[in-house]
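retry 2 of 3: previous attempt timed out while embedding phenylalanine. Reduced batch size to 1 and resubmitted. Inputs unchanged:
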Amino acid sequence: MKEQLEQIRQSALAALDAADTLAALEELRVKLLGKKGELTAVLKMMGKLSPEERPVMGQLANSVRADIEAELERRKAALNAAALERKLASEAIDVTIPGDAVELGHQHPMNQVLQQVKDIFVGLGYTVVDGPEVELADYNFTRLNIEEGHPSRDRSDTFYFDDNDAVLLRTQTSSMQIRFMEEHKPPFCMLAPGRVFRKDEADATHSPMFHQIEGLVVDEHITMGDLKGALIAIMQAIYGQDAQTRFRPHHFPFTEPSCEMDMQCHKCHGTGEVDGGVCPTCHGEGWIELLGAGMVHPTVLANCGIDPEKWSGFAFGMGLERMAMGRLKINDLRLIFDNNIKFLEQF
Ligand code: PHE
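retry 2 succeeded.
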């Protein structure tokens, strides 16, 4: 029996050493230590031994069992470690591979022009303010001296929120004239850029949403000469000293007298023709309308609690997209809103 046990120990240790998977180890465990295993078979014969031999063999059998169990654990740990090693090697990340370059964007061309315009006005002492796009008809029309029934109030031109036409998407930044004068006493110079909304079909020069920049100056003895001087200086700062501009008489309910300012077309240089055909940018006019302006109507000043006998002022409202188109030589307004990356990357 002693030889048998030694034999089991030796062949077991050799087999365990050769096993190279966890499954093979488990198979061996059952075969060696299980109820039907070799060692159990030997132990079952213990009863036939003499009382002197039994403890000796018992001790030997226990030491064989302990050796096999220890070897099993050792092999299991070794196989697990090897498996982990392989997994780590196959999943290794090479941290020295260069990363993907991150492309930096830049300001939208329209905001570039807006920033430039703001800088010029801030340099002239204007205060830049912001106001609501959802506006009361009172601010957008009534207190600007635009009477009930005026065509610009029509539902076919203006986006209203309610049945009594009291709340709307502002159609002009001129609403900011009223909001500003309500809260500030003259003298002041303010600039109010922002979005405005009109029921226009989109084409090369129209969009249902566009941007305006409103300006308002109120002080003592302000005249039309101040208005012209300021606007010419500003346009030259934006478009260059030799930019050609002109003023035309116009009508706005909230200014008197009123005018519009045009700039010579950057495409045809005022001729109205390109390659023998009509200039597509100015439709043959030779001039592009930039803004509406005028002397603040005395009724509007009075509507805001400012004495028109003492104070006078001028106001203007310019289209930001028009300015950007002229500055950046863009000939279709829709390009500004499409946000095609290839287009934007040019600026
Ligand atoms: N609000 C006018 C428009 O949208 C422009 C304007 C502003 C005219 C200020 C006069 C004074 O056409």
